[in-house]
Amino acid sequence: MYKQLMTGLLLSACAFNAQSADAPLPPSTMWDYYHQRLLDNGDFVFDPHIQVLTPPFAEDARQVPIEIDARKLEGEVKKIMLWAELNPIPQIMVVEPSSQLENRIAVRIRVEQATHLRAAFLMDDGLWHVGTGHIEADGGGCTAPSVARAQEGWEKHVGEIFGARHSRDNSSLLRMRISHPMDNGLSGGIPEYYVDHAELRDDNGQVLARFELFASVSENPTLTLALKGDTPARLWLRDNNGNEFNARF
Q: Which residue in 1, 62, 190, 211 is deepest, having the highest Cβ count within 10 Å?
């Protein structure tokens, strides 16, 4: 069923920090592990053209906005991978973009403790370009009980998609919010129940981007994407219980 779009959503108004390749960061004890596990020991370079933007501190560790801006990267991107090194569920998102998607993505995640955030872009030459951020947090965001489930009648709104499209120059910004508890199985004996796949499609069904999502994404997640041109777009979602949702922008 198509969901009627409602008023546009804004990203958090809190200040963001960008970490460059030369910025001082706490030492990482997990890079070698994830380089092997997620990047298959592939060739890589830490690239200052990839900005990982975060608040200086996670005031609400259940809803932490992050933005990846890699629009200065040159070449064709084959895959994008995001993860938080010290989360119990580290992976955030895997994206397979088309040439219509700009290298700019924002999403809200859960954070269990202070951690490095990584954004890795696999280019057409086989080299991973990696950007790094760091978020400070008191923690507990991954194991805290769901706020959505505490609201009466929450199940009636699962799958509702709210959002808007904002045109600018030769591109447009899609800002979307999906009603879903995104249960990660780490709180209160509640089993995993989360959106795990998404596609952004045009009106002809051509896929503009594919997304694999993980349970580290926040409940009632927000997602911001940038598209080149004014191609009509439709967001399709599926959760791990097989429910499908979509909306047109």
A: 211
Number of C-beta neighbours around residue 10 at 10 A: 10
Using the CB atoms, write b or e for 156-182: b if 16+ within 10 Å.
eebbbbbbebeeeeebbbbbbbbbbbb
Cα(12)–Cα(87) distance, integer angstroms: 22
Count Cβ atoms below 10 Å from residue 248 Cβ, excluding itself: 15
Of the listed ranges 4-13, 18-27, 108-117, the one predicted with least confidence: 4-13
**Average pLDDT of the chain to the nearest whole number:** 87
- How far is Cα 79 from Cα 72, in angstroms, rounded to an integer? 16
- Fold assignment, 48-248: Immunoglobulin-like (2.60.40)
Task: Measure CA of the first residue to CA of the last residue in the chain; give whole Å.
Answer: 15
Cα separation of 157 and 180, whole Å?
A: 8
Task: Note if the pTM is more than 0.90.
Answer: no
Between strands 91-97 and 207-213, the pairing is: antiparallel
Where is average pLDDT lowest: 3-7, 106-110, 130-134, 228-232?
3-7
The one-letter amino acid at 91: Q
**Among 194, 91, 84, CA closest to 139:** 84
Domain ranges of the chain: 48-248
Q: What percent of the chain has pLDDT over 90?
A: 69
What is the pLDDT, as a whole number, of residue 25? 61
